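Researcher: Structure for this, please.
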Amino acid sequence: MKASGLTADDLQYYADRDKNFMDKVIKDNLPASEIRSKGTRATVYSPKPGEPGEIWVSTFGNSSGSSSLVGHAAIVSNNKSVTIESFAKNYSPIGLDGVQRYPNGWQNKPGGKILLGNRVSSLQKRKAAADWASSQVGKPYNWNFFNKWDTSRYYCSQLVWRAWLTQGNDIDYVTIDSIVTPAELVNSSATVTLGATNG
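Model: Predicted structure, C-alpha cell format:
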C-alpha cells in the first residue's frame, strides 16, 4: 500500500477486523434454517436493484488488490442501471483508473453482496448523493486508504462515504479514525441492510 505509513501487522489487523464485520452481517441476516456447511452458497434475502444513492458492497475481494481491505463498494447513480465506483486501473473491469461509471450488474454478480440503504434518507437526499458521486467521475484512485479526507482522489468506500457525507449523513462505522472501509459502511448504525447474499 502506498503512503499508508502502517506496518504489515496494522494492515493485517484491518483485514481481519473487516472480514469479521462482513461475516457478522451475513450471519445476523441469515435465518437459522438457511445456515449451510462452509463453502455452500446460501441466499440471505434477495437484493433488489438499487434506487439512487443506495449502496452495493461485495463481501470479498476489493478495488485495489490490497490484502488490507475486504470488499468493494459502489453507489447507485440517478440512472439505476449505472453505478459510480472507484477502482485502481489494474482491477477495473473497464480498465480505467479511479472514479468511473459502470453498468449496474450487481444483482447478478456471483458471491457475497449486500445492498444498503441509509436510515436517514429521502428521495431528494438519495438523488443528491448520487449526483455528487457522478460529479467525481474522472478523479484518480486514492492509494492512501488512511486519508479518507482527501477530496482529490477516492478509493471505493471513501467515495460512497463522502457522497452521503455531503448530505449530512456520516455512514462510517469507526468515525474517529482516518479510514472508511466497505465493512464499516455495512456495520454503520446509519445504514440498513436491504438485501444480502452469502457465497
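Researcher: Any notable elements?
Model: The beta strands are 42-45, 55-58, 72-76, 82-87, 98-103, 113-118, 191-198. The longest helix spans residues 8-29.
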